[in-house]
Amino acid sequence: MSSHDDAPRRMASGEGPATATAETSAEAEGHADLESGSQGFGTPPATPIATLPPLSPHAGGVPVSPTTGEPVRRRSIVATQVAFWASALCAGIGYSWYWFQAMHKGQFHTASWVTGWLHPRPGGMWSLLLACGLAAVVAVMVALPCVTAYQAWTGHRFSRALSWWALGGSLLGVLFNWWAVAAIPCALVGVVLLRLGSSRDYFAEWDTLRTPAPQPKLPTDVFYGPLPRFQ
């Protein structure tokens, strides 16, 4: 019997269409895997392929953060920010408490320690001058630690000298109340943190990053042609 006679027999037993359908499904799954970006054909390995981590970016020989392009902030620098901003916050709270108390005439002389010492007449010229002076004092107490914190964050070494000014300004908190006095230990902590070894390394990295690369000096006395001793 010829092969043409076997075809109806295979069709009757269901072998032909089933096999074709299975092959078509396998091909469709393969195309779906390729389109979905999977591993493709084959069995994936039991353990993942080991790869090395990406190299940290450098700028001028200094490791920098891939996000900011600046030297990585050390923990001491972050703690310095907390200390100096806390000092400024304590000064602001102390002045706000003084101002809230001074609005009431009966509490004017107890609003701050300096008003209790000088005992000016509420509403008089000396009380107004004292109020203006205390406003200038708190401006200094808030500005100095904020400026110091910013300069330290941006890697300027002279922020270490500014920290002494911030500490000195915080001492003016004795004119107000205990809230303002709390600015003193906060500023003192910032002064100590800026003198740690990690802070010095951080400033050194910034100095290296800001230092321009030396330009090669091109020779100016170039002799063209055969040297005289070979002529």
Write a compact overview of the structure shown:
The chain is mainly alpha-helical and 231 residues long. The protein has nine helices and two strands.
Folded structure, characterized:
This protein has 231 residues and is mainly α. It is 59% helix and 2% strand. The chain contains 9 helices and 2 strands, in the order H-H-E-E-H-H-H-H-H-H-H. It has a two-stranded antiparallel ribbon with strand order 1-2. A hairpin with a 2-residue loop joins strand 1 and strand 2. Helix 3 runs antiparallel to helix 8 and helix 6 runs antiparallel to helix 8. About 5% of the residues have low confidence.
Question: Helix and strand layout, with pairings?
Answer:
Elements: H1 3-13, H2 15-36, E1 58-59, E2 62-63, H3 75-102, H4 113-118, H5 125-153, H6 159-170, H7 178-181, H8 183-193, H9 197-210
Antiparallel strand pairs: 1-2
